[in-house]
Amino acid sequence: MILSTDSILFGASIGALRQLQLDTFINRQTGYDWAMPGGAFGIGVEAYDGRPWAAQDMRITEIAGDTLGLATNFTHPTGLEAVQMIQCFDGFATLRFSCSVKCKEIGAASCVTDLSPLRFQVRKADGLRVHTIRRDQYRLDTTVIGAEPFVIRGGRWNRPEHAGWLVLEDVQARECLLIGIE
Predict the structure, then answer these.
(1) 114 three-class SS
(2) What does the pLDDT look like over 65-88, one tens digit per residue?
């Protein structure tokens, strides 16, 4: 399914084993595509048993006039359910990701070890720079990433490790992607 504005072209689909995959994430002004076609994409909700979430369905929804949304429903073998919503806004190079999780069975939430509304794989991981604000050290942190996943750790209401934003920078392509986390 595709979300499209004058600034962004974003496409995702349900692939093998009911896993969500990112097909395209293009900045229309430059033509730069951040997506690893067919790469992992979805919610970052991890359970201690390691079993994967299954994407059940995707649908495009209209939200308040000129705002479109892509909603995906997920289920987990523990009885948890999740809905990821991606919203795009005409006139802005902005996507908003949100995620809600609910329990159908008593005690199912106790297996959740990590919660994030977004997880995606970029086309070019090697050599990207990641700029973050470290709230635990009160400084700008710049890291060159390789093939290993880069994890931003928030949470802990009064003691988050990172502030709520990061910038991915592809120096060669002169392209930046600002990600804000609420």
Answers:
(1) strand
(2) 777 888 889 888 888 888 888 888
Q: Which two tokens stand for residue 111?
A: 């297996």
* Sheet-wide strand order for 119-120: 2-4, 8-14, 20-27, 39-42, 119-120
3-class secondary-structure state, position 105: coil
| 21 and 53 Cβ atoms separated by less than 8 Å | no
Contacts 24+ apart (CB under 8 A), 148-155: 152/181, 154/181
pLDDT tens-digit series, residues 163-172: 777 888 998 8
Candidates 10, 84, 94; CA nearest to 53 is 84
CB 45 within 8 A of CB 97: no
* Dihedral angle over CA of 72, 20, 53, 87, nearest 10: -30
